[in-house]
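User: Modeling request: complex.
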Amino acid sequence: KNEVEQSPQNLTAQEGEFITINCSYSVGISALHWLQQHPGGGIVSLFMLSSGKKKHGRLIATINIQEKHSSLHITASHPRDSAVYICAVRGSADKLIFGTGTRLQVFP
Amino acid sequence: DTGVSQDPRHKITKRGQNVTFRCDPISEHNRLYWYRQTLGQGPEFLTYFQNEAQLEKSRLLSDRFSAERPKGSFSTLEIQRTEQGDSAMYLCASSLGRAPYEQYFGPGTRLTVT
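Assistant: Request completed. Predicted assembly structure:
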């Protein structure tokens, strides 16, 4: 079993839909990251959180430390949101342990 | 551009050849990380440096792999006697090494071993 599990693996949506991507982890962490990866490989950090909830524009990330679970929400999804979203947890020495990613496609 | 840069962006090589990749971190960042990402998977940790010291190596990093950061600035990752299983995206990231410990990623080097 992977230390970081994401669901779903693939997600398609119509423009405007509310999107939720889930992440569960089994190790102790100091923080959890949500990352976005576009075709070609570049990775951009969306959120880093260790408790509660963060919001940036149409993106919302929440974490429940007791349940070892985090969610990434996208409100009013848009085709430009199409990308792979990766959950990563930071353990010892601040190296990251990554989930396998969720491929999101938003159609107009 | 003051972000993390990697060179080359793409490398195609024949099995058995040696390859070397370079990563230039953000200038004031003292931690530098190498990750490998195979198709359809999330990245996996390979190794990291605090300044010039290599502090941790993953078991994924076989004897054919070596990484250096000689002056605590740029880093190189060398793969000797490449195998088809080495085909992957090699990602570099850097961080300040203190709170908030955010890592900034480079664009990656895509290696194809034929």
